[in-house]
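Marked as duplicate of an earlier ticket. Keeping the data here for the record.
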Amino acid sequence: MEERITWNYTTWLNIVFLVLAFALLVRFLRTGGRQMMAMMNGSPDDSTSQDHHQQAPPAGAEPHLNDSDVTQSRDRGNEQ
């Protein structure tokens, strides 16, 4: 008996997911995904990156404490 390739449900699922992956890739490329990824390739020290810590917080938001602020306030508490 000669064996042959058969098309079962997993074959159809593979085709559906390949089409879905292709559609998502096309959408990614058409909406500027390549430029976004190129922008993310830079280091944090690049002059083109924005310094988000220098921006004022939105109205009504609590100020963000970084690690040095927390350490300094903890050290001040130990000195008393």
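See parent ticket for discussion. The radius of gyration is 26 Å.
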